[in-house]
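Blinded run. Sample ID left blank on purpose so nobody reads anything into the name before looking at the predicted structure. Input follows.
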Amino acid sequence: MQIKVKHSYAQSSIASVFLYYTIRVKGETIMFKIKLEGGRTMEVEESMYWHTTAHILAQAVKRLFPNYKLTIGPAIENGFYYDFDVEKPFTEEDLAKIEEEMKKIIKEDLGIERFELPRGEAIKLMEERKEPYKVELIKELPEGEIISFYKQGEFVDLCRGPHLPSTGKVKAIKLTSMSSAYWRGDAKNKSLQRVYGISFPKASELEEYLTKLEEAKQRDHRKLGKELGIFMTHDLVGKGLPMYLPNGYIVWELLENYIKGKEKKLGYKHVLTPPLATVDLYKTSGHWEHYKDGMFPKMEVEGEEFVLRPMNCPHHMMIYANSIHSYRDLPIRIGEIARDCRFEPSGTLKGIERVRAFCQNDAHLFVTPEQIEEEFKLVVNLILEAYKDLNITDYHFELSLRDPEDKVKYHPDDEMWENAENKLRKVLNDIGIPYVEKIGEAAFYGPKLDVQVKPAVGNEYSLSTCQLDFCLPAKFNLSYIDKDGEKKMPVVLHRAVFGSIDRFIAYYLEETKGALPTWLAPVQVKVLPITDKQLDYAKEVNNKLLEKGIRVELDSRQEKLGYKIREAQIAKIPYILVIGDKEIEANSVGVRARNEGDIGQLPVEEFIARIENEIKNYTV
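Blinded prediction complete.
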């Protein structure tokens, strides 16, 4: 539940900040958290509404399952959850019973009261109620911390609040899903049962939310990936390790060829480097210090320590260092579709959007200081060109800067940071691109530009990035010979237009609902003869399309035409060609377009010209 408030700033680029306001309503303290974005609308989040509903959920569970233990239950961006230590996992039937009990608690309109206790009494209360997780939390609170509880009827929970005055203020609820979760997010701890839910003050708001939720399910790339034969996963292979099926690899290869073609026109040279390296490489680059917790464990072989690589820049630094370079050689643009591995917690894995093995559309541009602005501008223009071709329109730019107060995370060189950040600002201002500055979001070695996309479902995230780096060239002692014959250090631009190809495919499947544009569709045309009488002609049409490089399939099964058309529509194939006696007589095909419906008869050559034009121009 959100209230939108207009606000303006004299400064157009301001980091995200949060302001907190409290008010008193019938003796209850209510806190509002306000998110401020430079030059954009603010959102006031009444998290107390969902927090209160989380307590109603916990109370319902304790009524139905008295022996189950409480852990934590916060409000989140879209609703709330509560984690329970259960004797056996909840079933869908259990969820329905819990939801009904929640409705009873709401109908009882129980007053919600806040009270405080000294540490000893707080521990005693939770021990008497046999809530060991709450006892653990209380014992970890700092001395002098206020220990508060909230009571509604027979239910009491350790909580800072705030909450609504009574349970009856909640009007419409829905428990949406369940999952497992580790206590304190640590895989070494007990596995818990997490229940998610949502609530609103009006039934109409809940209905609207559930409609959006159903839309999200229909767009979920995991569902579409299975239905369209894009990718699969299997626990025997490993969590977060997707395998691309033939249709998926076609999409993958087309995207790879698309972006590499764009890069080659800009003078990029593509390389192939191994997906592992010695630990010493990452110690030299500084990544080991900053990112080792996100890497897979190191392996010892013949006295050397190796690790699966989480990023490609150290390899590309070594390629640059392999030769002596003149200022006349720069810029040197090294590109790679590179396989990387990162150890993501199992609870965060999601289809091909969040994985443990992925391929980055990566590149590193080695430039002179004088070339920074022009090369950065070329990268931004490449991103914009790709977004135009792919009809990506809902995005904005974020300039990620260091936090000057953080002396641990960031490379300690104030002059370097000020120079780098000012150069990126200047380019963005010169191009005229609106952007928001994000303090503390830079990489450890330099500032970066992130392009945040707002997908059709879910939260926004970074798709493309370009990072400026004065740090790694120094760590690897990189150099070039300037026009005076002296050694100078190059500057590096790290950039990825698609980010990882895996995540991009996930994003694009959800944006298009799986109806990929003709140039990207695994199967572009399905040929359907009405009966066997038209089969020979259908084969001729099929072969003509194949000769033109069009991805076509001939469906000659002994099935009813309506059934075959429906199957092709479910597979989201851009064009269906129906062939009967009339089409043979006219040397034509009956065309059904995914976006336009039944077009009617077209001469075969005219249809070929039409689809070739779509493919050439990336028509969406």
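Unblinding after everyone has recorded impressions. The chain is about 35% helix and 30% strand.
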